[in-house]
Amino acid sequence: MLPHNADILLIEDSPTQAQQFQLWLNQLGYSVDVVHDGAEGLLQARHSNPRLILLDIELPTISGFHILACLKREQRTQHTPIAILTNHADEQNRVRAMRLGAECLISKYTDRAQFCALVEAALPLTNALR
Q: Is residue 54 in some structural domain?
């Protein structure tokens, strides 16, 4: 897949959840690229320039935490905001995500309004005016 610099890169292995999140974000006016595999997501994140990455923790091939750590170590991607998506929004995962440089941790069980508010809060202020 060739990157086209969408507003948001969504790395989520569940097609159903990815479709739901993409629909919500599209309704807010954001363009969204969706990737379903950890290795492909890491490659896409390195070669595109999204305003925000929404990153699942449990992915095929490479975990979300590993992707987060890699992207925060790399000069080109270290300032890209990353929000972790998870079914396990416990304190241990939250602390680990924050220590690795995530902007926030979003439970996949949150409702549409809260999900959208958390995503918009994680977007960089310098790009907030579209």
A: yes
